[in-house]
Amino acid sequence: MSINANLKRALTVVAAATLSAITFSASAADPTKVGFVYVGPVGDHGWTYRHDIGRQAIEAEFGDAVETTFVESVPEGADAERVIRKLASTGHDLIFTTSFGYMNPTIKAAKDFPNVKFEHATGYKRGDNVSTYSARFYEGRAVLGTMAGMMTKTNTIGYIASFPIPEVVRGINAFTIAMRKVNPSAEVKVVWVNTWYDPGKEADAAKALIDQGVDIITQHTDSPAPLQVAEERGVMGFGQASDMSAFAPKAQLTSIIDDWDPYYIKRTKAVIDGTWESMDTWEGISTGMVGFAEYGDAVPEDVKAAADVVREGIVAGTMHPFEGPINNQQGEQIVGAGEIIDDGVLLGMNYYVEGVQGDLPK
Amino acid sequence: MIALQRRANPSQLMGYLAPLIAFALTLLAGLLLFALLGVPVFEAFHAFFIEPISSLYGLAELGVKAAPLIIIGVALSIGFRAQVWNIGAEGQLILGGIFGAAVALYFYEVDAWFVLPLMILASLVGGMLWASVPALLKTRFNVNEILTSLMLTYVAVLLLSWLVSGPMRDPDGFNFPESRLFHDAALLPRILSGTRLHMGALVAIGVVVAGWLLLSRTLLGFALRVNGAAPRAGVHAGFSQNRLVWVALLLGGGCAGVAGLFEVAGPIGQLLPTISPGYGFTAIIVAFLGRLHPVGVLFAGLVMALSYLGGESAQITLNLPLAVTGVFQGMLLFFLLATDVLINYRIIRKQAS
Fold this sequence. Notes:
The structure holds two protein chains of two kinds.
Chain A: H1 2-27, E1 32-37, H2 47-62, E2 66-71, H3 78-89, E3 94-97, H4 103-112, E4 117-121, E5 130-135, H5 137-151, E6 156-161, H6 166-182, E7 187-192, H7 199-211, E8 216-219, H8 225-233, E9 236-239, E10 252-258, H9 261-273, E11 280-283, E12 290-292, H10 301-316, E13 326-327, E14 333-335, H11 343-347
Parallel strand pairs in A: 1-2, 1-3, 3-4, 4-5, 5-11, 6-7, 6-8, 8-9, 9-10
Antiparallel strand pairs in A: 10-12, 13-14
Helix pairs in contact in A: 2-9, 3-4, 5-6, 5-10, 7-8
Chain B: E1 2-6, H1 12-37, H2 41-50, H3 56-81, H4 89-106, H5 115-141, H6 145-165, H7 200-217, H8 219-229, H9 231-236, H10 241-268, H11 279-289, H12 294-318, H13 323-344, E2 345-349
Antiparallel strand pairs in B: 1-2
Helix pairs in contact in B: 1-13, 2-12, 3-7, 3-8, 3-10, 3-11, 3-12, 4-5, 4-6, 4-10, 4-11, 5-6, 5-10, 7-8, 7-12, 11-12, 12-13
């Protein structure tokens, strides 16, 4: 009894001391700590590179009021949860986990750190302290598809794809639909490389596609390697996630640019102001989350004009990349003229549209 | 001119000390590296080697990370002792994960005691099955097991990728390629609450003891060692070489399979397109770092695991690049090989003729 009471008292004292220490440190205008978990190296010049630019934008915006940390090349498996927990337990107030595979680890860790805010990119599970965010990259793909359809001479486009998840399938379909609108005889050949970042594999895929007669390459992997191959072999291509023209000055027609800066600044500000709430964000060209690099020299004026029409139409809401008529691979109409595939279906997209060659891996 | 001359009697003591010397040299070189990077040396060492294991949670994570390396490393080192080169533990690990997960998903939400033991059994079978292909090809057609076991790893990776995007995909998961989250009866019990340390850590210690007993106290262990050191002597002694190939590969495959299950039913809790950050390959390094001795593998596994945790911690606390981890692991191996050379050879000065 008395031992118990003593223990209780001791624990209370310890708890009070810890609590006051925490409150004290929080009120002493400590910088807000923002952590990032990256799936690739910051030097991938694609996906992770752009997230890291976003991190730097936070530092530039808030200066000494924030402190940022990142951990790069974190495998999507058992290791992710440890890294997320580590960030949460080392005083980070806001943690961005920037790959789909971090979804369940983020949710698990978030339960044990209710006072830390988490932001998971491209996932579908949320919690009181977990938001999700992604960009409507498919809008950008529709612009690329339009350009490719007008510029291909062999009527075959090569598409280097990472994993058969809805995000990637959606991009392939948006690209193909836009391409066939301007060139109904063009087709898309897809190669799955089962990696987000592996310059060697990506380059091999590009070479194989070019050997099979494609004259334009586009990719949903993160390194500039496919574009470099395109440059060497004298074919055209599109950059991924960032402006890759430095790697392929002649070959890059344009590039989708992921711009996370405004979103990251907004969410960090919300944490600083104490107004952060769990939400889902899915923005596209209209807010600038999906941007484009300058057109390459090889792009003719009429192609630029057509691409601009698609961009402006999407921004104005008069055009939608998934507006019917849309046919499936067997040529049967699955979406009628004027109908639009809704977000729910887009989020789980698991079929190819007409114009994509081969079977979707299942 | 400088040349290497084989020593008649390499020191056994130095053989065992070599990893320690290599570790010390790595620390020294690390000192230099941090100084060159302009990082406060003491803080860097603290972040790399002390901070990750300065809490109970950190120690538990060390166990989580080291367990698969040790389980596979011990089994591989037994095979390597017998000159059976199973390079495909990564693939066997994946098959173990697949088989175990198949049981978990088949008995989804069946709260029965037998689910987990059945999963473990299935993973054992899965890993062994994958390893039996190189064993069969080796014993029947004398096909090099290095090539076959390695190539089967890539087949395993693609098989897993196909399964999680098709038959084993979560029906409510928006078509993302991953399985359902396992229910509680299919998850490994945690042995330390508040951490992720699971049963696998205990199994790893058991495997070390069993491996040591096998090698030092049994006829089979003796046969394996003789086959490695002097194959012809083994044949004369009546040990079937084919049988030893089978034993070595099945042992490696079975252990890797179980290690794979411990990942999916432990810290991951579901089947993903990638269930291992290369444990099957890292375990090869661990086996050699541990001098192909089960107790050595135990320490080597812990050191290797620490180097990963240290790399993360150094990124978080000091913003050091991830490459530092790779440099540390590389230096450790380099110094180990270098000390090995000097233990087995002496440097002599040859007169130019």
